[in-house]
Amino acid sequence: MSPLAWLPIVTLIVSAVYVSDDPAFSKSFITSAITVTLCCIWPTIINTTVGVSSIDRDLLNVSRVLRLGWMTKVMKIVVPASIPMMFAGLRLSLGIGWMVLIAAEMLAQNPGLGKFVWDEFQNGSSDSLGRIMVAVFVIGLIGFALDRLMLALQRLVSWDRNATLR
Amino acid sequence: MNKQHLDISGVSMEFPGDDGPFRVLDNISLKIARREFVSLIGHSGCGKSTVLNIVAGLHQATTGGVILDGREVDQPGPDRAVVFQNHSLLPWLTAYQNVELAVKQVFRGRKSRREMREWIEHNLELVHMGHALHKRPDELSGGMKQRVGIARALSMEPKVLLMDEPFGALDALTRTHMQDSLMEIQQQLGNTVIMITHDVDEAVLLSDRIVMMTNGPAATVGDILDVKLPRPRNRLALADDPEYNHYRAAVVRFLHERHAFPTPVPDASDQDESRVLDLRVYKKTRRAAGLKPEKTQLNIGFIPLTDCAPLVVAKEQGLFGKYGLDVTLSRESSWANIRDKLSYGLLDGAQMLAAMPLASTAQAGGKPMVAAMSLDLNGNAISVSRSLYARLQATGQQDLHTPLGSARALRRIIDEDRADGAAPLTFAMVFPESSHNYLLRYWMASAGIDPDQDVRLIVVPPPQMVSHLEQGLISGFCVGEPWNAHAVRQGAGHTLITSYDVWNNHPEKVFGVTRDWADQHPDSLQALLMALLEACAWLDTEDHRREVCTLLSQPGYVDCPEQELRMSMTGTFQFNPDGAPESRPDFNVFHRYAANYPWRSHALWTLSQMLRWGHIGQTLDLEAIATQVYRPDLYRKAAAALGYPLIAIEHKCEGEHQGPWVLHDGEARIPMGADAFMDGRRFDPADVIGYLSGCNPVANERRFSPGVKA
Lengths: 166, 710
Prior knowledge:
The structure holds 2 protein chains of 2 kinds.
Chain A: H1 6-17, H2 27-53, H3 57-66, H4 70-108, H5 113-123, H6 128-157
Helix pairs in contact in A: 1-2, 2-4, 4-5, 4-6, 5-6
Chain B: E1 6-17, E2 20-32, E3 37-41, H1 48-56, E4 63-68, E5 71-72, E6 80-83, H2 95-107, H3 113-126, H4 142-155, E7 160-164, H5 172-189, E8 192-197, H6 200-206, E9 209-213, E10 221-226, H7 235-239, H8 242-258, H9 271-285, E11 297-302, H10 309-316, H11 319-322, E12 326-331, H12 335-343, E13 349-353, H13 355-362, E14 369-374, E15 380-385, H14 386-394, H15 403-420, E16 426-429, H16 435-446, E17 456-459, H17 465-470, E18 476-480, H18 483-490, E19 493-498, H19 499-502, E20 509-514, H20 515-520, H21 522-539, H22 545-552, H23 562-569, E21 572-573, E22 582-583, H24 600-612, H25 622-629, H26 632-642, E23 661-665, E24 668-672, H27 688-693
Parallel strand pairs in B: 3-8, 3-9, 6-7, 7-8, 11-12, 11-13, 16-17, 16-18
Antiparallel strand pairs in B: 1-2, 1-4, 4-5, 9-10, 13-20, 14-20, 15-18, 15-19, 21-22, 23-24
C-alpha cells in the first residue's frame, strides 16, 4: 500500500463531493486530512489489535469472576492493558502522517511547507537552496517535536513505571 | 446450616487432542460442608487446577457438574472468588483500587459509598495491608501482592474461596507468614475454602480434609485424609506432634509410594526401579535448607570411565537440582585437559585423579587445588597385549595372576630383551600424576624393575588405550574400566591384575576444584558435595549398579556397550578372552568403607610416591600439602548436613588390614575394607621418609635418596 497512491483518488472525490459556496475548510485541507488519515492509521490499528489480544488470561479471568460489564471491562482492563502497544502504534502513525503530509503538499500544491519547498525548487533563484535548507530543518524539527509531544502524552497515561519510555 | 454446601459430582473433563479426546479428569466426586477447609494435593499436571477452574466456572466439565447451595455452577461469579497463583492484580490500579473494583461490582446498590470504603479498608486491614492502600502492585513484594489478591477475594464475601497454589511462588519465610495469616482469617470468617497446594506441610497445617489426587491422565480422587488436629493450630507446637507427623507421613506416603507411578503398586521384582523414581519425586519436594549456592550454573568435567558414575547419577537423578544447582557435565578427552580447563576456570569442578590436585598444588606453576571428597576406591587394572602375555606364560612363572608373580615374569622378559639388545617394552598409563602410574611403578619396582630405565612409560588418554594396544604401539597399560574389559572382549589383550591387588582399596578419583573457587563458592561446593555423596551412596546399593550401566552406555557419557560396563560395575572381572568372569566384589567402591572420606594418609602416600619417583622436590613439606589439598573439614560439613556418619581422625596407617575391619572413632563404628599392599608393607603417614627408605632401591639421582634429609 503505497500511501500517496490515495492522493489522486481522494482529490477527485473531494472535488466532486465537497461543493460549497462558503466552505468551512478549504478543499486542499480536506484532501490532505483524508489522505494522511488513510495512510497513517494502520500501525495504530494493528498495534492496538495485538495489544488487546495479548492481555494476560488471568486478568480476563478476574473480570469473568467479577462478572464485570462490557464497558467496565473495556475501561478497567482492556484499554489500560493495551496502552503500551497502542502508543507504540500511535507514534509510528504520527511519523508517517507528518511525512505523508509534506509529500501531499508537494504533489497536490496544497499550501504548506511542502509546497514552499517545491516552489523554491522550481523557482531556482540564488536564494532557493538556502530557503530549501531552512525548510528542511524546520520540517525535521517539527517532526521531532511532534514525537516528543506524543511521548509526553504516553508518559502521562502509562501505568507501568518500570518500563523506560524513550 | 446446610451440610451439603458444595457438591462436586462425577466430574470428568476431556480436551480435544490429536488422537481423539484426551481425558484429564475422571469421575471426581466430592462433597464439601460449609466452613470446611479442603486441600487438593497431587503431582504436577494431574489436573488439580482444572478441578478448581470447573468449580470457579471458568471451565465447563465434559460430564458431571458442580452444585453450590442447590444451584448449578455454569459460569464464573463472585460467589466463588478465586485467588490466582500469580496474584493477578491489575497493575495499573493501587491495592485499594484493585479491591474497590471487586467491591463496587458486588455491592453496587447495596452499600453506600462510605460503607464501601470502610469495607475495602477493612479487608485490606484483615490481610495486614492497611499501610499500603495506595501502592501499586509493582511497588509491593510478592507476598504483599498475594495478600491484596486474598483481600480482593475476601471482599466479595464469597460462598467458597478457591485458591490455586496461592503461596507457590513465594519464598519459604513469606509463605509461613501467609499461611499463619490465612489460618487467622479462616478462624475469624469461617469461609469454605478449596486450596490447591504442592506443599505437604501446608496442606496438613491448614486443612480439615486433604484430597489426594492420582496422577493424570484421567486423574481422580485417590484418597481423602481427615485432619482432626484441634484449631487453632500452631506451627511450632505441631512440629513435634506425633499426630501431625502421622498425617504428614500419610500424605507423603500417598504421593511418593502409591501414586508416584501410573501403574498400580509395584511388585517386588521391579522394586529397584521404584526406588529410582522415588528419588526423582523426592528431589522435587525437598530442598537443602539454608544452602545458598553462590553460583548455580556449573560446568563439571569428567573422563569417560565407569567411575564417572557418581557425576552421571547426580546429574541424571536430579541430585544437583535438588541442591539448587544447574550442572552441565562436560566430557573431556584427557586428564591434562581437565587439569588445564580447571586451572583456567573453564570448568568449575571436575572428576580428577587423586594425585592431580596434589601435584598441581605441590609443583611450581601449578594452581592450588582442593579435594574435598573422594569419588571412589579401586577401579583400575593392568593389562598386556596378547603377545606379551604369551611371553609371560612362556617364562614358566606359575603365579602369573598374583601381582608379585606377574611382576617377576615381566622382570625375566626385560632381562632377556636386554641380553638380546632389543628395545625396551612400552607401557602406558593415563597421566603422570595418577594412581595408575604409581601403582604400575609400585608393581614393577616390587620385582626390581626400574620403571624409568627398564621400560618406557608413556601417557595415553583412557579412551585411546585399546587402539594403541591393538596397533602394537604399547605392550601393556594400566587404566580404569571399561577399557580393560574392552581390550579383553576385543581380544586385544589379557588383564594380569587389578589395582586392588596392588593396594587394597586404594584412593582413585576425587572431586577437585581450585582453592580459589572453593574459597569463593563455599555453598556451591557444599551443594556439589552433598549431591555427589548422595549419588555415591545410591551407587553402592548393589541393585543400582546395573541401572547405572544403562545410563553410562549413552553416547554423552562413556559410550561403550552396556555388557562391558556391567562386567566390573557389578563386581565381576574377566581377565582373559576365553576365561569366565571372576568375582571381584570390591573392584569399584563408591561409598562403603568410608570411601568418600578424603583420608590425609591417602594424600601422603601419593605424595610419598611422587617423591620416590622424583615428581616433586624433597624440600617440600608433604604434610602441609596434604592438609591444604585434602579437606576432611569440607567433607564433614556436607556429610553432617546429610546425616552421614562423621569421622574425626584424618590419618590411618595404611597396609595394616588384610581383611575387613571396623573403624572405631568416637561414637562411630564404620565398617572398612582391607588396605593391604601387595608386598605386605605398612605405611605410617607420620614417617614418610622412613617408609621410602624401606622401598626397593632406585638409582636415578633425580629421585628420592634416603641419605638426603628432607
